[in-house]
């Protein structure tokens, strides 16, 4: 492969790893905040667990959709680069 394509793929790998790490931290923080607010509002462990779990599911699905869109855009960029390099 060409050096330009190798650099693009290496950069994409680094960015993907950083996005995944950021998504995991955001999901964990949002879940803890939602569970804390549910406990503060209702003072029951059941509501804490319910709202924590629901927040986790919603945020995780949003991250999954965002990840798939990012993967799709990355594939388009890689295809454009390969077309430009006539591969």
Provide tags for this entry:
single chain, 87 residues, mainly alpha, 2 helices, 92% helix
What does this molecule look like?
The protein is an all-alpha fold. The protein is built from 2 helices and no strands. Helix 1 runs antiparallel to helix 2.
Distance between the termini: 9 Å
Number of helices: 2
The radius of gyration is: 19 Å
What characterizes the major β-sheet? none
The overall pLDDT average reads: 94
Low-confidence stretches: none
- What percent of residues adopt helix (DSSP H or I)? over 70%
Counting DSSP E segments of at least 2 residues, the number of strands comes to 0
Strand content: under 5%
Element string (H = helix, E = strand): HH
Class by helix and strand content? mainly alpha
Overall geometric form: rod-shaped
Summarize the structure.
This protein is mainly α and 87 residues long. The chain has two helices and no strands. The longest helix is centred in the first third of the chain and has 40 residues, at 3-42.
Write the layout of secondary structure elements.
Layout lengths: L2 H40 L2 H40 L3
Helix pairs in contact: 1-2
